[in-house]
UniProtKB/TrEMBL annotation:
GO terms for biological process: pyridine nucleotide biosynthetic process. Its EC number is 3.5.1.19. It comes from Phytopseudomonas seleniipraecipitans. Residues 55-198 form the Isochorismatase-like domain. It comes from the Bacteria. Keywords: Hydrolase, Metal-binding, Pyridine nucleotide biosynthesis. It is an enzyme of class 3 (hydrolase). This is nicotinamidase. Pathway: Cofactor biosynthesis; nicotinate biosynthesis; nicotinate from nicotinamide: step 1/1. The lineage of its organism: Bacteria, Pseudomonadati, Pseudomonadota, Gammaproteobacteria, Pseudomonadales.
Amino acid sequence: MKIATFDVDAQKGFTSLCPDELPVAGGHEIAAPLNDMARRGTLRLGSKDAHAPNAIWVVDSHAQMLQPLTHANADLTWVSHCVPGTPGFELLDELPAPIDYDFFVWKGVEPDLHPYGACFHDLAGARSTGVIEYLKVASVGAVVVGGLALDFCVKNTALQLRGAGFQVLLYLPACRAISEAGATQAIDQMRAQGIIICEGSGALDSELARLEESDHE
């Protein structure tokens, strides 16, 4: 079985390096696990949030976040984050440059778009970013996912991939969540859809070996 790995939004804007954006506890620690994860695949994919500073969902403070919106493709308020040209837009230093990935996605560029998953530009899942098509043309059977944040963009990307028919594995050492409750809920949602949760490198290797064996039966 051909395996791809996916680094979802592993950007400085989601770490303590950019405290005014969306710092996730431990977010700066995931580069090494992502690089370790990538050694299991033959293709490495990545994504970045790329948001306009004047986006319709931007609010001034963290206290105003997570309020519902009625826009078609922006459902919650957030502080400004991951704006191109700022430090928060950059990937963690230990990761490859976007051009060195096999496939890379920039999402949320338009000021009225705030997607979470990396497979679609819109919340309804109608405007593809090309990820699913690329993986299918490459005959990929399984995708290992990690990144930031587990309870939003990582979860949604994994669910989109699973919905497209891929075997999906979540590598927990390469993920961090905005909240512990959000992480628990996200893991339960993913498990319910058949996504394999791997708590360490040994578990990841065992699950990949099992998938490989079942693919040959």
